[in-house]
Amino acid sequence: MRTEEAFVPGLEGVIAAETAISLLDTEQEKIIIRGHDLIDLSKRKKYADVVYLLLEGSLPSDSEREALERKLKENYDVPKTVNDVLKLLPNDTHPMDGQRTSVSVLAGFDSTINDRSEAANKKRAYALLGKLPAITANSYRILTNQELVEPDHDLDYSANFLYMITGKKPTELEAEIFDRSLLLYSEHEMPNSTFTARVIASTQADMYGALPGAVSSLKGSLHGGANEAVMYMLQEANSVDKFEELLHKKLQRKEKIMGFGHRVYMKKMDPRALMMKESLEQLCDLKGDSLLLDMCEAGERVMAEEKGLYPNLDYYAAPVYWMLGIPIPLYTPIFFSSRTAGLCAHITEQHANNRLFRPRVKYTGKRDL
Ligand SMILES: CC(C)(COP(=O)(O)OP(=O)(O)OC[C@H]1O[C@@H](n2cnc3c(N)ncnc32)[C@H](O)[C@@H]1OP(=O)(O)O)[C@@H](O)C(=O)NCCC(=O)NCCS
């Protein structure tokens, strides 16, 4: 039994779970997803392949990927109640809260909710992933009084997701870049949201309970919320000089700069950020406008010189999403949608091999009053 001397604030470096899903391998500098290097996957595979890999344990054959795409499409429709509930929310509700509420609402529609077997959890995961493009896009549309967009079954999963958000059919390059962003966001070992989901699942709570916990965690600016915060900073500055000035001012005030730093790879650039930076370069070239890239590179220089800190994925995902025409309040909901693949794999794994999370405390209160 461990004693209070074992206390580690923020559980930094503590091994909290056994998993066969993923690892941030700091020695080999790789993000390993069920034996595969995530960055390598991002160069040759699609998000749907990684969804399959996360939930089934191996990469799909062509026919298995096609079957998965079909399964996701069969699940596109969302119960009317979800949209009815969203319509009751105040318009300034953040889509992340709309998304959390929608996932909760779905619980009542699952007649097998008490079945936590691996097969039932996987079926549920595919059903949720199928519904998330509509939930994500339409929660924003309802909250901003816009017409709902119906899914386009002729497009593949990611292209349809982007279409439902922007209301415009994406070009091949736009669809590819969006798909890559989903793949890069799909799984990342044990961030706060995954830990939260596993902690909740460890009470034998169902997926509809564990996932809203993860949405809440992800919304925080120290976690997924950073991608939105980055874009607001870039928007506020709107020029290279003003962006540098803004960062210097924030650093003087000892503020954290969103999009930089990471609990695990603090002194290196997040390899996923590098992939998104490439996508930003492609989009800037295509549109003949390099302002966002120039600003981001200037920010990188300031942070490396002043703090020895490097960008994480959120730093480059933000301007990429902006150039894809995605409204800023949807950046973190998109992160959650894609991460649902990894989260569902973790919840399934936790249910299959469970030990209730129940840590102890270092008590600093009074005694014997
Ligand atoms: C991700 C994050 C929470 C990890 O932080 P952590 O492991 O808790 O590290 P700490 O907050 O203890 O930071 C260690 C040092 O680096 C500094 N630091 C870390 N991230 C920083 C940032 N983004 N901007 C400025 N300084 C930062 C801290 O101020 C601290 O410096 P000090 O020792 O001089 O006080 C942190 O880097 C952060 O807040 N980043 C911005 C939010 C973000 O982009 N989140 C998405 C993560 S994927």
Structural features, described:
The chain has 369 residues and is mostly helical. It has two domains: 30-222 and 331-352, Citrate Synthase, domain 1 (Orthogonal Bundle); 226-323, Cytochrome P450-Terp, domain 2 (Cytochrome p450-Terp, domain 2, Orthogonal Bundle). Helix content is 59%, strand content 3%. Strands 1-2-3 form a three-stranded antiparallel β-sheet. Strand 1 and strand 2 form a beta hairpin. The chain is globular, with a radius of gyration of 21 Å. It starts with 21 loop residues before the first strand and ends in a 17-residue tail after the last helix. Bound molecules: coenzyme A (COA). The site of coenzyme A (COA) has 15 residues, from loops.
Write the layout of secondary structure elements.
Blueprint: E1 22-25, E2 30-33, E3 36-37, H1 38-44, H2 47-56, H3 62-74, H4 80-88, H5 95-106, H6 118-143, H7 157-166, H8 172-185, H9 192-201, H10 207-219, H11 226-237, H12 240-252, H13 271-287, H14 291-307, H15 313-323, H16 331-352
Antiparallel strand pairs: 1-2, 2-3
Helix pairs in contact: 2-8, 2-16, 3-6, 4-5, 4-6, 5-6, 5-10, 6-7, 6-16, 8-13, 8-15, 9-10, 9-16, 10-16, 11-12, 11-15, 12-14, 13-15
The structure holds coenzyme A.
